[in-house]
Amino acid sequence: MELRLEAPRPEHRQLVETYRREFLNSGDSIDGSAGLAWCSGFDDWMALLADNSHDETARPGCVATSVFLAFDGEQLVGMVDIRHRLNDYLRRYCGHIGYSVRPAFRRRGYATAMLTLALEECRRLGLSQVMLTCEKTNVASARTMLHCGAVLQDELLMGSMTIQRYWIEL
Questions:
Q1: pLDDT tens digits, 37-61
Q2: b/e sequence 49-63, b meaning 16+ C-beta within 10 Å
Q3: Which Pfam families does UniProt cross-reference here (predicted)?
């Protein structure tokens, strides 16, 4: 595995559109994609990423984020969304980092490798600790976070879901 993170660029259009379709067709949520599921298309998503790249231009309710595509060779295997700070909603339900791995690439160590690289990015941003969350039923995500040094803070109800909140010291 030679995983690397790259910021999305116009030449990634086809890869990102395929990634989006795979998740939507499978009924899976595209976590860590900074709203890819809700955007009307690639151009709309890239505009959202540009707006949310700085607090001064972030859309209402959003904070500055850095979004990365995770590649192994030429294969797009996942996405990572790093929020530079927490607002009330993120502090309660989402945390600093969201990520997703394409269904065909799961159970191969990509999530742990992606989170490790994301933590390096967080250090570059000057963060000293990061919060991560997952649904209690998402055992694979919890295992990934624990493998990277996360400590469970607590559990919160969000509708019918139980959200686990973890912290990692950097």
A1: 999 999 999 999 999 999 999 999 9
A2: beebbeeeebeeebb
A3: Acetyltransf_1
Going by C-beta distance under 8 Å and a sequence separation of 6 or more, which residues neighbour residue 105?
72, 75, 77, 78
Q: Read off the pTM.
A: 0.95
User: What is the rounded CA–CA span in Å between residue 96 and residue 15?
Assistant: 25
Instruction: Give, in order, the Cα–Cα distances in Å from 154 to each of 22, 108, 127, 129, 165.
Output: 32, 28, 21, 16, 6
> For the chain, what are the domain ranges?
3-169
Q: What is the pLDDT of residues 20-42, one digit of tens each?
A: 999 999 988 899 999 999 999 99
- Per residue in 100-150, pLDDT (tens digit) is 999 999 999 999 999 999 999 999 999 999 999 999 999 999 999 999 999
CATH code, 3-169 = 3.40.630.30
DSSP 126-166: T-SEEEEEEETT-HHHHHHHHHTT-EEEEEEEETTEEEEEE
Residue appearing with tokens 């967080």: 122
Which is nearest to 20 in space by CA: 32, 30, 34? 30
